[in-house]
Amino acid sequence: MTVTISPTDKRSVRALAVFATADRWTKGHTRDGRPFFAIPGSAGAIYWTDTRACTCPDRRERAVDCKHILAVRMWKLKHDVEGKPAATAQPAPLSCGDCGAALPAHVVGGSMCGSCWQAREGIKQELARAERAAHRARLRADLGLIDEAA
Question: Span 45-50, mean pLDDT?
Answer without folding.
Answer: 92
